Amino acid sequence: MSAGAALPALRDELALHSGPVGHDGAPTWLLHDPLRNQFFRLTWPVFEVLSRWHLGHSEAIALSVSAETTLALEADDVSDVVEFLARSQLLKPSGSRDVERLLAIHDAHKTGWLTWALHHYLFFRVPLVRPDQWLDAILPFVEWMGRRSFRLITLGALVVGLFLVGRQWGIFTTTFVDHFSMEGLASFGIALGFAKIVHELSHALTAKSYGLRVPTMGVAFLVLMPVLYTDVNEAWKLTSRRQRLMVGGAGILSELALAAWATLAWGLLPDGTAKSLAFTLAATTWISSLAINLSPFMRFDGYFLAMDALDMPNLHNRAFALARWHLREVLFGLGETIPECFPPRIHAGVIAFAWAIWIYRLTLFLGIAMLVYHFFIKVVGVMLFCVEIGWFVARPFFVEFNQWWEKARAIRTTKRSRITFGLFSGLVLLAVVPWSSRVSAPALLKAKDHMVVYAPLPGVIGELVVKAGDKVTIGTVLARLDNPDMALRLAQIERRIGVLKYEIEAVGFDDSFRSRAQAIVQELGSVMAERTALTRDQSRLMLTASIDGTVIDLSPVVQLGQWIGPREPMMALRSGTQIEAYVAEDDLPRIAVGASATFIPEGSGGARSATVIGIDRTAVKSLADPELAVLYGGAISARFDNKSLVPDLAVYRVRLTVGGEDIFTPVRGQVLMNGERRSLVGRVLRSVAAVVIREWGA
């Protein structure tokens, strides 16, 4: 507005209160808008301007402030105050332009029911009660809980309770695990509800004890999860930082006191329902107070405590503004005016805090997006997932990029911008251009064929033909076993066969043989069958090689004249060398049979050239080589299921031939295969497309 124009009138219902002293020692004031229950902290210059608002003109106010105080103001400074009041809707509309401005603000906040639902289903409030009168009635009965004596007694109860829990720590942790059931979760829910009622009442009663008004209490819905809330905005009226901290921290302190007494009760009570309830209440309040309420990254109690402790109202917004300014200066060096000046350590801390919030919220909103996707039916879940990603993740980036676009002319003129865009272009090239054709996969270098030689029957080692390291071919005799009992039985059977044949030949001239001729024939057949079986078993005692290979792992019990039991391993044969690699599903289309590769062993050892000879087209159901599992130091994440190692992600077996000397001990490593070139962006887009197609059922 022009310096000579008359100033608009302030709204009549506004109230001015004294505020706390600022960091620089200057006084502050609070302007209260009772209709919206909002507070605005005013600096000394703004207060001096408002106290002379009756002068009616910017120039008159600036001259008066400069003459009567140590401040030096100009008419433009007063105009800035007018603009602040107009943006905050603190001025009384006096003409059609003001009415149009208010209507424009109102229309800007109006949305259709669908848009409102999409933007507010994550968080909205439902006020339930106006508790101010009955809080006044119950305050005298609970004032003793805020006294120093009660806090000291509670601290003592906490110390004793933790001591008792420490003595029964095993029972305490076991009880915690036992509560992971439907009944346990229900009891946790009831305990959490009770703790939150105590939490909110503590906020309200502490505010009342300092003479503040508590207009509403109700329930808010965070991702459709009910959460109680209390409106204690009037805590801004308190000039004492300690009192504001007490109002903001009353909920956490009450939950911690509840946890302390519940912990003590658990340690003292006998086993039963009461002890179980005490455990549930203690565990719930400890977790909700320390893990959730103390977080300064969302607008929970921890955030308001941080604001009061640092005396920095609107901490998030101020930290975001400073971090965005710092980012633009680092990237472009625009030389813009800093939004707010702090001492160097606080300056760096506020910027780091803003980045921590952004990272935390990015993680949180991605998690919420996955939650709403799985919570609703598939079509609605996909739509809400897109809304989450678009509104809470992508939108802040586009808003900042829009600011860069508006400053494009200034950005193009700075030297730092050229460096930034050069680095950015390099990163884009790295992401878009398919530089690498390498496909990496965990692999195991091992023998191609492997056979363990067992003793098929009990026997004495009569001859050992080979020794460790000998190369053999199929059919080569490895060792000969002798079984004296089998040889004796075979000799007895031979004699019996001779006797039976004599009896058959004597049937024609001996009546005694003729009468039982049929029985003799049957017995002869049976004995000859037994001889055939014994001969076959005896032939098995001659051990031969069934593959071409090298003799390894010769058992120390293999000595001439030594008895050896059945199915007892005597030695092993290994033949050739191959590589088995396990390729991720995304990389499988990039490789083909005949592709060259390089095997890099773990630890010492040189790389070995290899060639892909086979690719499985179905994912492995269980790992045949446990050395490659994470549980045993490998790189494949797998879990035990029915005594088998089942990979957590789909992997496909790829077989490769490899040159060089044969190995006798498996070697773990990585195989690098030449495959189709694909950029990082291309891989990401393919993965996203695969997920979308899979989830939509296409």
Automatic annotation (TrEMBL):
Keywords: Membrane, Transmembrane, Transmembrane helix. SUPFAM superfamilies: Single hybrid motif. It is found in: Membrane. Gene3D superfamilies: 2.40.50.100. GO terms for cellular component: membrane. The chain crosses the membrane at residues 152-172, 210-232, 244-264, 276-294, 350-373, 379-398, 419-437. It comes from the Bacteria. InterPro entries: MFP, Single_hybrid_motif. It is a single-pass membrane protein. This is Peptidase M50. The lineage of its organism: Bacteria, Pseudomonadati, Pseudomonadota, Alphaproteobacteria, Rhodospirillales.
